[in-house]
Design brief:
globular; 6-stranded mixed β-sheet; alpha+beta; Deoxyribonuclease I, Chain A; 7 helices
């Protein structure tokens, strides 16, 4: 089984690009983030044409998450409890034998912005929420986490350490999720590999290898036991057939 996560940076603008990727990579379950459209605007039929069922938790112009699957996803949670003010950022479904959650975690903007302490509080709420999950269930928590967990996940840790995405406070929040038993699947399978999932559109960052690894697939031990390989699909950070890419690449995990 193949699962994936992808921040598409606007599904309306990226729909044909996502469909191109689905045809090429044939994932079974996908978490999408940053839809930037409402549930009423979500293009269910466009995905159904390719054999995918879809569920969404959208929001006008901002945020928004969705799950695509070849099997009908059964939604069990829309939104992070007590965090409605931060928008549509979490959806969970039972699908393909997994409890599958995808999240679009707050950015925080910069350390002096009001959104930074709110980001930390959001992560605290996420950890509290995931702590209640059944540890015996194969569980996946994936999405755009907007945190570089270690220096290996940043193109310039020496310069960026202590800046947004690189603070001790943010990293501690991601560590708390791992302390619940979740495993960073990419790092588990690629312990020494420096690879990125996001690159700024500006300044030729992609070609200069100036990126961050902020898009993650976390797995509970029963799910991790099935993970064979994990890769960042850099080819789909490039234009395909004249279609413009997101500033994020998909992350793909193959499970037994």
């Amino acid at each position: 089984m193949r699962i994936a996560t992808w921040n598409v940076n606007g599904l309306r603008a990226r729909l044909e690009f996502v469909r191109h990727w689905l045809r090429a990579r044939q994932p079974d379950v996908v978490g999408l983030q940053e839809l930037k459209l409402t549930d009423e605007q979500f293009p269910h039929e466009a995905f159904a044409e390719l054999g995918y069922r879809s569920v969404s938790f959208g929001q006008k112009s901002w945020n928004g998450v969705a799950i695509l699957a070849k099997e009908e996803p059964q939604v069990t949670q829309r939104g992070l409890p007590d965090q409605d003010s931060f928008g549509s950022r979490l959806i969970t479904a039972e699908v393909e034998g997994l409890s599958f959650t995808t999240v679009y975690c707050p950015n925080g903007k910069h350390l002096e912005h009001d959104d930074f302490p709110r980001k930390l509080a959001w992560f605290d709420a996420l950890a509290d929420h995931m702590a209640a999950a059944d540890p015996t269930r194969p569980t996946v928590l994936c999405g755009d986490f907007n945190i570089c967990h270690t220096g290996l996940d940043s193109w310039d840790e020496a310069r960026l350490q202590g800046e947004i995405f690189h603070t001790v406070e943010e990293r501690a929040r991601l560590t708390r999720l791992l302390d619940l038993g979740f495993v960073d699947t990419f790092r588990e399978k690629n312990p020494e590999l420096q690879a990125f999932s996001w690159w700024d559109y500006r300044g030729g960052a992609f070609h200069r290898k100036q990126g961050l690894r902020i898009d993650l697939i976390l797995a509970s031990p029963p799910a991790m036991a099935r993970v064979k390989s994990v890769e960042i699909d850099r080819e789909y950070r490039k234009k395909q057939d004249g279609l413009t890419a997101s500033d994020h690449a998909p992350v793909i995990a193959d499970l037994a």
